[in-house]
Design goal:
The complex is a heterodimer. Chain A is mostly helical. Chain A contains eleven helices and no strands. Chain A has two domains: about 240 residues, no CATH class; about 160 residues, no CATH class. The chains are: A mainly alpha, B mainly alpha.
Amino acid sequence: MRKGALKKKQRQLEELHLDRREALGELVLGMFVQGNWDEAIMSRGAAEVREVAEELNALAAPPAAPADSGEHDLAPTGEHTAEHSMPETGEHTGTHVIAEPGMPETAEHTQEHAVPATTPAVTEPGPKKPETGKPGSDSPAATAESAPPKAGTPKPDTAKPDTGKEDPAKAVAAAATAAPKPPAPAAPGTPAPVAVDGKEEAEPQQKLSELDLLEEKIGKSESQARTAAEAARASTAADSRTELSAITREIEADRTKLTSTLSTASARIADAEKRAVAAEAKLARESAANREAAAGWVRSQAAEIEADAALAAEIAADPDGSPAAGADAGPRQAELEARIRTLETSLEAEKASKIEVLTIAESRLKAIEESAREAEKRVEEAEASLSEAGTAPVSVEVAPGIVTEAEAREAAVVWLRGQISALRQEISKGEASDKKGGT
Amino acid sequence: MGLFGGGKQSGRERRAMKDHLVELDELRRKQLRDLGAMTVEMAEAGRFDRERLSDQAREVVGIDREADLIARGLEEGLTLEELEDLARSDDEPATDPGK
């Protein structure tokens, strides 16, 4: 179970290490792409990678140091070497005790060496040995006997307070590796079994808490590394993506704006076209009505003038003025004078009516001119709206129609003016003939 | 629509492009890890050799460019020949921001 957890953590650390290396690579790539090298940032990233690498090494190191395992405290084989009673730092090797008298030159003291001296040595300074770190000052028997009580203590800290070199992670790892090997069954003859049981109870709790701490630390580091990797990836990819999306959005906005402008312009064009067509139709109707009215009026005037002319000719060819009519001269003269007066009166009335008609025609002409001006104004407004819409081709299409309308109006006005002047001439001619007739 | 599009991309070509894209992604990650490891070594040595870092980064940039090309081929449905033509047409002297 613990081995599995350790392996899992090791795997996580390896992945974290790879991730951090990749993130650092992304960082350096970003610097290369931007041409902006920042050695401080690179050093920081490298330090983060190194930190993970060190943790990984610390986790992987303990299995490679079996010499410091728990079996030293209680060798299953019953063989105690010189190192067994030494601190776990390994600073004290068996050579230290070689100088001691009574020790074998091989520096190996087996269980047998200690057996003869057990009884006196147990009461001697056994537990204090680790503090001095000099097991050579004791007899081999004392060291051999002191091992079990040391193993029985709840914490190995008391045995190695002066070393101060052990990394907590290493200590945890060492404890973890030492734990699976309970020495109790290996030394049935020694008092160790009872003490070993106590150790078994205390050690797992400590190891578990240390493992929890380590796990928490690894999780924290992993999340930091992920964040860094994400940031690095984002820094390289985000620039181009952001730019691309901004351009796309801008294009979309422009397209939408253009579409709305075009639709507005087309609506305005359609409206202007409608108004132009309506104005053209109205103008055509008015022109036709005016022409018809003018023609009718001219026809009636011509008929009246013809009638007047016929009357004048009749008067001129009348035989009343001949000398042969001497007998009826008096009443006929009176009748003629009465008729002439009637004719003069009718002529005066006709003249007055003509003048009235002329006045009406002039006022109508003015109204027509006014309406022509208004039509021109409307045409100008339509042209202005078309130019606002900014659609040159359409304005080119619409303009000729509008120009034709204006020209038609102008032609109608000119024609009416001509008609009026012709009428005036006719009237003046009639007056002249009246004067001639009167004289 | 892209510049090409005359031919039709076959399923085999599409698969090949996708596979190549995956390979390129793996290669890119490996190159980035190498770049990170190189940076760590240089940081430990206390000196950053920008030329070596730039060389390594340039390789990653090349991989990125190739991946972009393949992605474009997949997106626009280009055949391998068209993609090759496109790669040749795009094969201009690239700017080197690292220097």
